[in-house]
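Chapter review: from sequence to fold.
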Amino acid sequence: MAVSIEIIRQLRDLTAASVSDCKQALDDARGDLKQAQELLKKRGLEIAAKKASRSVPQGRIEAYIHTGSKIGVLLEVNCETDFVARNEDFTRLTKDLALQIAAADPRYVGPQDVPQDEMKDLDDKGKKEYFKSNVFLYQPFIRDEKITVQDLVTQAIAKLGENIVVRRFARFKVGE
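The token string follows.
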């Protein structure tokens, strides 16, 4: 079955995957757009898992000052090469992540950063809700609440072909 350029373009707009990856996913899904999206997501997770152990000595410090100058964010996001650190997609990612921190006010980067004493009295449902509101990588992304911040980073890993790690952040609010 030949896949039309229009449906490839549609899938590319939805996923930001390369044209060849979109074509391959649509071929594998026999033209089914929804199934092709799922295939690309699954492949992205597989790519991210393979790259997770790679060293990330390069990166970018992103600074964000919210309108009115009452909230500010400093964020460090690391990647494997300075080439990717200067890439437009990586820069857009770091800007989106800094905006997320300003808007959602997370306390920790990942679950490994949460002190055990904060978790001791929570059941599984309570932990899930706690992570959603306090752990940056588990928060729903403010521009698309169907995905988490970790999903956004995973998509960037798949697209850019390098491991990406949110290292640390600081959020400042006047009066706090």
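Two observations follow directly from the output. The longest strand covers residues 164-173. The chain has two domains: 5-51, 58-173.
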